[in-house]
Design goal:
Layout: H1 3-17, H2 20-40, H3 50-73, H4 77-91, H5 100-114, H6 122-133, H7 139-151
Helix pairs in contact: 1-2, 2-3, 2-4, 3-4, 5-6, 5-7, 6-7
């Protein structure tokens, strides 16, 4: 089952369970997906593929994390909690992200495979990581890990 079908099924289940906050968050995802599909139409694409849906979901999480920080700085804890709840719902549709030791091992392997020796080879290493691990990568974390591994 693709991400679209999973999302549609989740909305139906949430509506039947009458979980308003979850249903609202899922509908936000559907609205953003529809906007993404519309934006892709000039390229001749009616429905964006799953990899672009994953990128869209990651950008939604990133913007919500930024909002959480701003809300907390402004003393708006209830709005920060709402954003965090949306992050939790959106995260359910993302694959498990490589972190910690698994990310370090993947970076080390990519450096070995590409023969990278200095920070100027960072692009090759990130490309190799993306090719092998794709959706399981948080590119911000991966880039930082590659930079640290090549610098030191």
């Amino acid at each position: 089952m693709g991400l679209r079908e999973e999302l549609t099924a989740a909305v139906k289940t949430s509506m039947l369970a009458r979980t308003k906050e979850r249903t609202d968050a899922l509908r936000l995802i559907q609205a953003k997906l529809k906007d993404t599909d519309i934006a892709a139409r000039p390229k001749g694409i009616d429905a964006v593929p799953d990899d672009e849906i994953l990128a869209m979901l990651r950008s939604m999480i990133k913007s919500r994390r930024d909002s959480v920080v701003l809300y907390r700085q402004g003393g708006r804890e209830e709005l920060a909690a709402k954003e965090e709840a949306e992050i939790a719902v959106i995260s359910e549709f993302l694959p498990t992200t490589l972190e910690g030791d698994a990310l370090a091992a993947a970076v080390k392997e990519a450096i070995t495979v590409t023969g990278a020796a200095s920070p100027k080879d960072m692009g090759k290493v990130v490309g190799a990581l993306k090719a092998k691990h794709g959706a399981a990568l948080d590119m911000g974390m991966a880039s930082a890990a590659v930079k640290a591994a090549l610098a030191g």
